[in-house]
Amino acid sequence: MIEVRDLTRVYRATTAVEDLSFRVQPGTVTGFLGPNGAGKSTTMRMMVGLERPTRGWAHIDGRPIAELASPLREVGVLLDADACPAGMTARGHLRWLARAAGVGTGRIGTGRIGTVLERVGLGGAGDRRIGTMSLGMRQRVGLAAALLADPATLILDEPVNGLDPDGVRWLRGLLRDLAAEGRTVLLSSHLMSEMEQTADRVVVIGRGRLVAELDLADMRRAAVPVRLRTVDPDRVLAELRDRVASVATRAVDGDALEVVGATPDEIGVAAHAVGSAVLELAPRARSLEEIYLQLTDDAVDYRAGTEVSR
Ligand SMILES: Nc1ncnc2c1ncn2[C@@H]1O[C@H](COP(=O)(O)OP(=O)(O)OP(=O)(O)O)[C@@H](O)[C@H]1O
Predict the structure, then answer these.
(1) Would 294 be classed as within a structural domain?
(2) 200 in the same domain as 252
(3) How many domains does the chain have?
(4) Cβ 285 vs Cβ 220: under 8 Å
(5) Closest ligand 1 atom to 12 CA
(6) Binding pocket residue ranges, ligand 1, CB within 6 Å
(7) Which of ligand 1's atoms lies nearest the C-alpha of 17?
(8) How far, in Å, is the centroid of ligand 1 from the Cα of 45?
(9) Which of 58, 159, 175, 222 has the fewest Cβ atoms within 10 Å of its own Cβ atom?
(10) Which atom, in ligand 1's list, is nearest to the CA of 11?
(11) Would you say residue 300 has pLDDT above 70?
(12) Helix, strand, coil proportions of the chain in percent (round to 5)?
């Protein structure tokens, strides 16, 4: 499990992360979402010990990463695909990492390197120099490095970057499999659309602060407005309000209404009870993207070329 509590990082003029607290559970894929500059990378760098918090803490399985006995075996990290050395081959880089981690060739031997290269789809490209690879392939090398020592926790900053649609689909499957194996998987993105089919939960931040922690399955069920056209809307709504406590409505186009807080069944029964014919009754699922954009609307730093100061 990853846990951050009151995590804060202040640079001279910028508070990049402020009083951030959340948990990432094992066996799930958790998306870490926020607009550009929200503080995702800074938070991840603090989780993995590359940046010191100004205040608060980040723990992995109950301890700061520096106190873990063998960090590489416990936490796999992908922060920047371009951190992989251009002059080395993928296999050479992984071999070097295995040695640098001091885990020895006994545990992370040639077999393991072959296995992770296969797992990230680079089975045939292990001997290519990293500098000759596309961004998508370099991301895969970074993922292979993160998976090398079979860690229980994965912290991945924008792993989708540079992957083509096939690559995105592949990564989605890989992350789901890793979570199904009981691992804790945290990945950042600034796009909800990348998370919709990948994550179980999302932690949304904006301007360094927690905006929302959401279970995507709950989110899909919640707040589905229903579009209603009926012959006598006033009577239908009065009846509906008698039956369902908190119903909100707003006029949309023409004579249609949008009703929030009641199901189509409840609306249909209320209309029947007052004898008003229903002309249209349609739930309109809001996309997760819409909900996310609404949540982060106040926290967008850069929009259409204008920078909003903090
Ligand atoms: N070393 C630093 N010195 C000063 N300011 C920094 C430093 N690192 C990050 N920041 C600032 O902290 C804020 C958060 O940056 P961060 O990179 O963590 O955001 P992010 O959510 O990862 O953004 P993106 O999606 O664009 O990568 C930004 O305003 C950034 O300019």
Answers:
(1) no
(2) no
(3) 2
(4) yes
(5) 4
(6) 11, 14, 16, 34, 36-42, 190
(7) 14
(8) 11
(9) 222
(10) 4
(11) no
(12) 40, 25, 35
